Amino acid sequence: MVKKVLIISASPRTGGNSDLLCDQFKKGTEEAGNTVEKVQLQKQKIGGCLACYGCRGTGVCVQKDDMEELLDKMVEADVLVLATPVYFYSMDGQLKTMIDRTLPRYTQIKDKELYFIATAAAGRRAMERTMDAMQGFADCLPGARVMGRIYGEGVYQKGEVEATAAFEQAYEAGRSL
Ligand SMILES: Cc1cc2nc3c(=O)[nH]c(=O)nc-3n(C[C@H](O)[C@H](O)[C@H](O)COP(=O)(O)O)c2cc1C
Question: How many whole angstroms from 9 Cα to the centroid of ligand 1?
Answer without folding.
Answer: 14
